[in-house]
Design a protein that fits this description.
The complex is a heterodimer of chains A (535) and B (251). Chain A is mostly helical and 535 residues long. Chain A has helices at residues 2-17, 21-50, 54-80, 98-110, 113-133, 135-168, 170-200, 202-214, 220-229, 233-263, 281-286, 294-308, 310-333, 339-343, 345-358, 364-368, 373-378, 382-411, 418-442, 460-478, 480-488, 490-530, and strands at 82-83, 455-456. In chain A, 79% of the residues lie in helices and 1% in strands. In chain B, strand 4 (60-65) and strand 5 (68-69) form a beta hairpin. Chain B starts with a strand and ends in a 13-residue tail after the last helix. Chain B has helices spanning 45-53, 74-80, 96-106, 111-124, 140-152, 170-185, 197-203, 221-225, 230-238; strands at residues 5-16, 19-30, 34-38, 60-65, 68-69, 81-84, 158-162, 189-194, 206-211, 214-220. Classes of the chains: A mainly alpha (535), B alpha/beta (251). Chains A and B meet through helix 11, helix 12, helix 17 and helix 22 of A and helix 2, helix 3 and helix 4 of B.
Chain lengths: 535, 251
């Protein structure tokens, strides 16, 4: 049965590539990247385990393994999405026992570039153990590595599945959002603790931390090789048992949320009703002050969609989490630093976050899917369309960004930094928006029409990441003039930062909307074709 | 271009990945006609209509709405047609009232007109009871009706409907038929695709039969069916196997 699922997954993958050369190129690029990074990691791991340094042998497997597991936990949620080539809902009608289904889906999930890269990277642990201690420790380490891979994959599936369920339901979606935020935000202090202890307390304390990590599912499967090398067989057995137990629990959890995903009607979100409001249809739709025009209608609809569409909600939440997490960590961490660059780390972090905020609309048309046909049929002018979308998105994002600037200024205990931070932040948001607007017109891609807001089509996770990276980078580079003004402008620069940043942002967005809007006027049918899912 | 054609397709061609979906379609829809576009699954009906309303760029050919080219003068042409595409989602995270209001505003209609027409349309199509339920939670038939309402809202001169009677229950079907008949009686033109031959036979003044990307027969209903029923004419034009009774004996 598991074999059937594996063959099915490979077949779907292969058919997806047929006649689509860009997809193949992206896939190969991803593969090359995976081999290079995985290979390096494997070499490092093997070297650490095989070396004579007890500290390296204790630290590398524990921290490397924990990083790997945490990466599998968070990256699908915040960046890559999950490849639901074999969407669980499609198996709802087949007479499959749940146990077979879960096992089959797990096998299918294991067949992919990320899993292969993980296996390659962690294989270094087994190689190192075998080099140093011979075949038996090597074998134990290899078993740990395999179980670790299984743990990673099951963990990411179970968590994304549970989160997508929680985000679907109105009742629990806010709770889920907060939970996700807290989880991700808690990574910050942990990382801080580690870097601080690395700098100040030396390796002795770190080894203690590694020791604790080794007894959690995060690192347990990856340290058994070292146990075997040192002859601690009981410990190795206990850790393997702990891992297996965790995997079983996660599979049980996953199976539970799978069941509900299969039962839910495709596309639906439970009988949701809009809030009661009085007045005529137009007044109810637009509110009192929005203009009674195409533009007003587009803004109103976009705002409703950012609140009602699960995918959009998920992307907003993800951004908010990263936006809080990233600068807070850099700002807290860099307090002791010296020199112009260290002093201005907050400026860099603002640029990074600002440009990232703009990325939220990089696939704005993909969110709409074929519903966009209504705009094509009515012939909505490109500039109006894009201006409305940018404005609606900014209604939501700008307050978050403003709060962020305040939060970081407070954390630096220097409110005079506020205009500088806000200036660079908004400048980068403007350039990021301008780039993302173009990406959304030129390189939209279809999202699967299913329930999981984290799901992407096979291969588009890679495309998505590359394009987003490019737009992000471009947004940051374009915002450099404002950052340079702040860095080298002294008191004048600081005073000018906020007005200059805002003006720069407005100019960038205007330019982006006008140029991309003209392109859109000639690309409407092609854009519609690009965001139509192929079934 | 003669004036009495409300809708004219000239030499439309579309190829997908080397496979020809529409192979040179010419069609003239007379003003005031109720035009049925028939064809088996995969004949290219949806592709043809998509190219005709500006949703899909043709490889070759033109589409004219009351003399305006859909691909060269899209603003004018698109303002004259109401479209109900098939297999396309609506902005379904809005409720029915919101969706129609949105559509009206996109069409640049005056707010008072929108208010009046939205209420009336929802009433006639028996969608008022759905109230504030999101369109995504509508049944298939209700979705068809709200999509039709979107196409009708700005009182276009020409209606292009792709499979308007699919998944519609008899009561709703009768409502839709009534509305369309009245619309044509008032001087509008309707072209719709279907493979429900009974409906076509009952409603249409003109019929075209498509197969394998080409128009096989076109004319008034009586010209096309002659002495036969429409079904016999359809099967004869399209060609296809007739069951001998020997196969599937295990059923």
């Amino acid at each position: 049965m598991a074999l059937t699922f594996a063959r099915l997954k490979l077949r779907v993958l292969r058919n997806g590539f047929r006649g689509r050369s860009t997809k193949v190129v992206m896939f190969v690029l991803g593969l090359v990247g995976a081999v290079v990074y995985g290979g390096f990691a494997a070499l490092a791991a093997a070297a650490a385990v095989a070396s004579d340094s007890p500290a390296a042998a204790a630290l590398v497997p524990a921290f490397g393994g924990a990083a790997l597991v945490l990466g599998w936990l968070f990256l699908p949620l915040v960046w890559f999405g999950v490849d639901e080539t074999l969407e669980p809902g499609r198996f709802a009608l087949l007479p499959l026992p749940r146990r077979d289904l879960v096992r089959g889906l797990l096998v299918a999930a294991l067949l992919g570039v990320p899993a292969a890269a993980t296996l390659l990277a962690s294989s270094g642990l087994a190689i190192g153990a075998a080099l140093r201690g011979g075949p038996l420790p090597g074998l134990v380490a290899a078993l740990g590595v395999l179980l670790g891979l299984l743990l990673c994959v099951v963990l990411s599936r179970a968590v994304t599945s549970a989160f997508s369920r929680a985000l679907r339901a109105r009742r629990t979606r806010d709770l889920a959002a907060v939970l996700l935020a807290v989880l991700a935000a808690s990574l910050g202090p942990i990382q801080l603790m580690i870097t601080n202890s690395a700098q100040h307390v030396g390796t002795g304390r770190l080894v203690a931390v590694a020791d604790v990590l080794g007894w959690t599912p995060l690192a347990a499967p990856y340290v058994v090789g070292v146990d075997a090398l040192d002859g601690r067989w009981a410990a190795a057995g206990a850790r393997l048992a702990l891992t297996v137990l965790t995997i079983l629990l996660l599979m049980w959890w996953w199976a539970g949320s799978l069941e509900s995903a299969m039962l839910a009607a495709p596309g639906g979100g439970g009988a949701v009703r809009t809030r009661a409001a009085s007045g005529t249809p137009v007044a109810r739709f637009l509110g009192a002050r929005r203009p009674r025009t195409q533009y007003g209608a587009l803004v109103a609809r976009e705002l409703k969609y950012w609140g009602r569409d699960v995918r959009r909600r998920a992307s907003l939440i993800t951004f908010a989490v990263i936006a809080v997490f990233l600068p807070v960590v850099t700002n807290l961490g860099s307090q002791g630093g010296q020199g112009a660059v260290a002093q201005n780390v907050h400026g860099f972090s603002m640029v990074i976050v600002g440009a990232l905020a703009g990325l939220g609309i990089a696939n704005q048309f993909g969110y709409d899917g074929t519903a966009y046909a209504a705009h094509v049929v009515t012939g909505v002018p490109g500039r109006i369309e894009l201006r409305a979308r940018v404005v609606a998105y900014s209604w939501i994002i700008v307050p978050i960004l403003a709060a962020l600037a305040v939060l970081n200024a407070v954390l630096r205990e220097d409110l005079s930094l506020l205009p500088v931070m806000a200036g660079t932040l908004f400048a980068a948001y403007g350039t990021g928006l301008a780039c993302a607007t173009h990406v959304s017109v030129w390189a939209a891609y279809a999202l699967p029409e299913n329930q999981n807001p984290f799901a992407v089509n096979t291969g588009s996770g890679m495309v998505k990441s590359l394009l987003a990276m490019a737009a992000w980078l471009a947004g940051m580079v374009l915002a450099l003039p404002v950052l340079l003004l702040v860095l080298f402008g002294g008191a004048v620069g600081a005073a000018l930062a906020l007005p200059a940043g805002l003006a720069y942002a407005v100019a960038a967005v205007w330019l982006g909307v006008v140029t991309a809007g003209d392109v859109l006027d000639h690309r409407q049918p092609e854009l519609l074709a690009a965001i139509t899912p192929r079934n | 271009m003669t004036v009495d054609s409300a809708f004219a397709l000239q030499g439309l061609v579309k190829t997908f990945d080397g496979k020809v979906a529409v192979d040179g379609v010419d069609l003239a829809v007379p003003a005031g006609s109720f035009f049925g576009l028939l064809g088996p699954n995969g004949a290219g009906k949806t592709t043809t209509l998509s190219m005709a309303v500006g949703l899909l760029r043709p490889d070759a050919g033109r589409a004219l709405v009351l003399g305006h080219d859909v691909w060269h003068d899209p603003v004018r042409a698109k303002s004259l047609i109401g479209v109900m595409p098939d297999g396309v989602r609506l902005f379904d995270r809005l409720d029915g009232t919101e969706l129609l209001t949105y559509q009206g505003l996109l069409r640049g209609m005056a707010p008072e007109v929108i208010d009046a027409r939205v209420t009336e349309l929802l009433d006639v199509l028996a969608l008022t009871d759905a109230g504030r339920t999101l369109v995504v939670d509508y049944s298939a038939g209700m979705k068809k009706k709200i999509a039709l309402a979107c196409a009708l809202l700005h009182a276009p001169r020409l209606l292009v409907l792709d499979e308007p009677f699919e998944a519609v229950d008899p009561v709703s079907g009768a409502t839709i038929r009534d509305i369309l008949t009245r619309y044509v009686a008032g001087g509008g033109t309707v072209i719709f695709s279907s493979h429900v031959l009974e409906v076509v036979e009952r409603l249409c003044s003109h019929v075209a039969i498509m197969a394998a990307g080409r128009i096989r027969t076109v004319g008034t209903l009586d010209e096309v069916r002659g002495q036969r029923t429409l079904e016999e004419a359809f099967v004869e034009v399209v060609g296809g196997r007739t069951a001998t009774g020997a196969e599937l004996s295990w059923l």
